[in-house]
Amino acid sequence: MHTILICDDEPDIVSALKIYLEAEGYAAVCTCSGQEALDALDRDREIRLVLLDIMMPGLDGLAALQKIRSRSNVPVIFLTAKSEDTDKILGLNLGADDYVTKPFNPVELLARVRSQLRRYLQLGGGMQREGTLCVGGIRLDDERKEVTLDGEPVSLTPTEYEILRLLMREPGKVFRPDAIYRAVWHEEPYGGESTVAVHIRHLREKLEIDPGEPRCIKAVWGQGYKIE
User: Fold this and answer.
1) Residues 81 and 30 in one domain
2) pLDDT for 117-168, tens place per residue?
3) Is residue 71 domain-shared with residue 166, that is, in the same domain?
4) Residue 142 and residue 81: Cα distance in Å, rounded?
5) Which residues span the domain enclosing 175?
6) CB hemisphere CA count around 136 (13 angstroms)
């Protein structure tokens, strides 16, 4: 029996989804805000899929998705209104796996749930090894020294790999260029900040859809770099 997290601020929708899922043999964890969903994911390591509403007060679905992707590669299916086409596209770019439009057809919803669970479990979902880092669609397997983007392998140089691993270990933290240089090159920078900038540019070229407008590897003006 797989556990599915439901997150929607409309109680009637949460109740209906719970009924549909439990009738199919799934266990359901119900939440009504993005923060509650994150807390539930931290508490329950058996959650295998998330049904996530986009429009919610406080931490909305898009913001919650970014935080989910910083800690888990669990499948996320967005629950959207017909008028939210732009948000659907943004959600998929941020790492959502699929979406269902409200009012949803229960048969279609369950079919999409089964499809995403099957793909996730076939790819080893829920059995993530220690040393595997996930941020957005980027996955770094430190045991195998492999990096993938949305499931596709990415070839990095050893230096690019070390910089990416450093950033991915603490998503959202800003690393100064001199700190990155010391951590990766194991010596004092003495002007090495420009060297770091070159490698960051190469990482963006390999990992960003638009390297000129990076969504993941970001520069914080006058401070350094972070991944989110």
Assistant:
1) yes
2) 887 776 656 545 557 888 877 888 888 888 988 778 899 898 999 999 999 9
3) no
4) 39
5) 132-227
6) 22
Q: Where are the alpha helices (DSSP H) in the chain?
A: 11-23, 34-43, 61-69, 85-94, 106-122, 158-169, 177-185, 193-207
The residue with greater pLDDT, 90 or 78, is 78
Query: Which residues, 6+ apart, have CB-to-CB distance to 11 below 8 Å?
Result: 32
Say yes or no: 10 and 105 in one domain: yes
Same domain, 117 and 136: no
- Is residue 113 very low, low, confident or very high in pLDDT (cuts 50, 70, 90)? very high
127 located within any domain = no
CATH of the domain at 172: 1.10.10.10
| Amino acid, res. 59 | L
- How confident is the model over 188-210, as pLDDT tens digits? 877 767 889 999 999 999 998 88
CA dihedral 176, 180, 185, 189 (to 10 degrees): 0
Residue 40 lies in a domain: yes
> In the predicted model, what is the mean pLDDT of the chain?
86
- With respect to residue 179, please indicate whether it lies within any of the assigned structural domains: yes
Asked whether the whole model's pTM tops 0.85, one would answer no
Do 111 and 25 reside in the same domain of the chain? Answer: yes
Burial 153-180 (b: 16+ CB within 10 A, else e): ebebeebbbbbbbbbbeebeeebbbbeb
Nearest Cα to Cα of residue 137 among 153, 151, 124, 123? 151
